[in-house]
Design a protein that fits this description.
The chain is α+β, with helices and mostly antiparallel strands and 346 residues long. It has 12 helices and 10 strands. The chain is elongated, with a radius of gyration of 24 Å.
Amino acid sequence: MTFENQLKALILFHLEEHESGRHLLQVLEEDVYARGKIAPEKGIRKSAFFEALNTRGLEQLLYVFNQLYVQASRILPKEHADLGDLVAIDGSLIDAVLSMHWADYRRGSKKAKAHVGFDLNRSIPRKVFLTDGKGNERSFVSSILEPGQTGIMDRGYQSHKNFDLLQEEGKNFVCRIKGNTKKTVIRTNDIKPGGAIFYDAVCLLGTPAVNQTEKEVRVVGCRIDKKEYWMATNRHDLTAEQIAQAYRLRWNIEIFFGWWKKHLKVYHLIARSKYGLMVQILAGLITYLLLAIFCHEQHNEKVSIKRVRELLIKIKNEASILFGRDDPYQNAIEDYLRHQRFPAIT
């Protein structure tokens, strides 16, 4: 089994929403299109497939993922360009089984965690790291962000030490913080009356000699639906309203996680090792990037399950023509029905 076979099989797994590796292998053996275009000429043995999944292809998948992101970033329109290069950062827990000893979480429960950087301007994933479920999310912020980019984060990422570090590295952030965080005000900014913004000041965050930031941080307070949100940032070039808008865009990574889990079956585990799970996750992200490019080029739309289903129907129709059968799927159904005996309807 070549890397190309492996990649195509994993893309098929995510596209067709298979629920296990055995289900995928059955399709690769019995489905006309999959057997002819995805599986190796002599088929894939179960042992060979799972050995490859857990030991081969990770470096190549990382390369394909990075190259596809570059291609997609050139093709997809850049939304919210006035806000700069925005990257939402968040972690998503993956349910593991007890035999996955590396996936430490808590007693009687195993989980892994995917740490994802999500390009908010183009609505596509751009970086991913994998740890056990207890993996510290804050430690990946610097690795995900590049100089000049702005990380959009929820309050679980509040770290005054990291705020200083990011500024030293030339990286930006908009991070929700706890409302009771101590603020030493250096200067205040004007606020438009009657708007959602009720606070805008440059401060030092935290308690002096304990956890106070060394560098100045801008703090913006925003009220939405009677709920107050406090955001720390080093973006002084944006208005307070734009800071609030940038933070609201963070919700798009939650939408992505939900879609990714529901429709691409990323979390139906077909690997148990950390290596194999990373292979599976990367294949899912590659599938999503391919869909993003396809949906934009063919329909000028973002990824949707409607377009995924249309694509699968198109593949099956082309398979019928390619392998010289009117409709192998319909023929199989008719063959089944002919051999069944149904009670008379009265």
